[in-house]
Structure formats: structure tokens, C-alpha cells
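I am writing to request your help with a piece of structural work I have in hand. The matter concerns a single protein, recorded as an amino acid sequence and a row of C-alpha cells. Could you please explain, in whatever detail you think fit, how the C-alpha cells follow from the sequence? Thank you for your consideration; the sequence and its C-alpha cells are set out here:
>
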Amino acid sequence: MTQQVPQVPPTETALTGVRNFRDVGGLPTADGRRTAFGRLYRSGHLAHASAEDALFLGGLGLHTVFDFRNSADHKLDGYDIELAGVRNVSIPLSDPADGAEFWRLVRDGNIEQLRSILANGKGTERMLTMYRSTIVDRTAEHSRVLHALAEDSVPALMHCAAGKDRAGLSIAVSLLAVGVEREAIEADYLKSNDPHRRYKVKRSDMSETGMSAEVMELLNPLFGAEAAYLAAAFAAIDETWGTTDRYLAEGLKVSPETRERLRERLLDQG
């Protein structure tokens, strides 16, 4: 039987060992500008990048790759490939113990465990809680990212394991800092649901039972991009700081001068 090749939009590059890659250019800001192409990219991890993938990534002129995974992720998938002349910065956005528990559930959880932990909306609530806590509890990490981008780290690639949650929130925070509309941030975020972008779930039991429709339905909230997840993050900003400007200034300690440097680096100057 002929293997089906994932359909990739013609404007994108099909990477064989890296999921969810895309340029975050072309998004509109509130003042009528757009994010520049070739400045900020997002993806899943680079540990399984092919030689062809590495050649493509190496040609992007990247300054920095931000890896938001923790040690449990690294143990599971491995460390990123080395790209010549590119700085790799590790900024874990989740606790390794939580990561180990998460991957044990995904890889080894039996149907009873999955039902107990994820059924009846509990999987979705788990994700909503994670998005809120990442915004409120990881201000130091997100501050570090924004200051690095403003200083010298562009062009940059941000990734986690799937390129959806931790990388998605870091991209969202970066876009908020330069004035991109929340609706545009959401539209880019939801692209992670495209079939050719989604994380390939692997389980210890890859049989029909281990990968049954019920199992995959229970796991789906953990690997899908939902507008409600990002809305929870935005709500956490509004409830904790009142406005995006106060979140950036008080929560992330980003000065007006730093925000202007970010705009110079990430927005189209035309």
C-alpha cells in the first residue's frame, strides 16, 4: 500500500523530522503593521531532525534556538541537533517531575488510568490549569525570553516538544509585546491542529487496544490546540494584571524602551 504523504501548504517547507514548523511573520498589529517574515519561527523539538531538515534550518540565519522542554522531555526524545553557529538556550517552562508524570500517562497509562485522569472534561481542565499557571508562575522565564529577543537573539526559533503549549505561549507573549492582536495570535496558535503539524503520539502498547479510538480521544485534549486554552492564558493576564501593558511592565519587567526594540526586531519596518 502506498504511504500517504501529509499535505503541506505550498508556502511552507515540509520537514520530515520536525513537526509544527512555521514562520510567525505576517500577523497584524493593532497599529496597522505586521510581524516580519524571517525573524521568529516556532516548531516542535529538533531532536529527530533529518540531515535535510538540518540543512534547511541552518539556512535560516538563526541566532538562537529557545528550547522550553524539561529534562523529562529530553530523556524521552533527546536533545536538539546542533546547528552550526546557532546558540541553543534551554529555558524549561514546566517541572521535570510533572513532565515525567505526563509522559508516563501518555506512554504507559492503561485505559482505567486514562479514564480516571482524563475523562469527563478532566483532560481539558488539566490543560486550562497549565495555561493559566504558565502565565502567572513563569514570568521570570518569559521576561528572559523577551529581553533576549530585544538584545541580540533574532532570528529565533522557539520550540517545546510539540510546539503547541509552552512554545505556543512563549510565541503569544512575544507577539503581545509587539502589539499583535489577540485574534491573530489565536489564529496562528490554532494552526497546530493541522494534521501535518500535530505531535505523533507513541505508546508502549502500539496495538489496536493500546491505540484504540477511546484511548486517542482521551489523550486528544493533551495534544490538541484549543481556543479555550489560549483564552485561559489571556484571562490570567487580565485577572492578574488588568491589562497586557501592565502584565508586560509589572509582570515581565519589560520597559517601553525594550518593547520598542522588540518592535524594531520583529515587525516589518516598511
